[in-house]
Amino acid sequence: MTKIVVTLQSVIAQSPDLVGTKIEDHTALLSITNGAYYSLDPVASRIWQLVEQPRTVAAVVDELLKEYAVERAQCEAHTLAFLQQLADADLLLLN
User: Fold this and answer.
1) Sheet-wide strand order for 92-94
2) What is each CA distance from 60 to 1, 4, 44, 46, 87, in whole angstroms?
3) Strands (E), the chain
């Protein structure tokens, strides 16, 4: 099986096979497919909100740069790493 690599040009969205809820500034997700539970911190929760509808990773990064005091290179690296983890766990739809 080939591993999907998330890039800045990837179009991503939340998988529909998840049930989630917001708890204060965190998000709790439950995968219907594998029964696993995931807890997202505030920044990860914001990224999760941003991919509710399909959009490019670059668009997610652009929005995060408006909201957080972070350098572009660091934001891109951390966002790509986080989204790759989500993709590896089958929590994202990628086009």
Assistant:
1) 55-56, 11-14, 92-94
2) 28, 19, 11, 10, 15
3) 11-14, 18-23, 26-31, 37-40, 55-56, 92-94
Burial of 79 (C-beta count, 10 Å sphere; 0-12/13-18/19+): buried
pLDDT score at 2 = 58
- Domains of the chain and any CATH numbers: 11-94 (3.90.930.60)
Query: Where does residue 35 fall: left (phi above 0), alpha (psi -120 to 50 degrees), or beta otherwise?
Result: left
* Tens digit of each residue's pLDDT (9 = 90 or more) over 4-25: 899 999 999 999 999 999 988 8
Could you tell me what percent of the chain has a pLDDT over 70? 98
Q: Is the pLDDT of residue 1 over 90?
A: no
DSSP assignments along 43-66, one per residue: HHHHHHHHTSS-EEHHHHHHHHHH
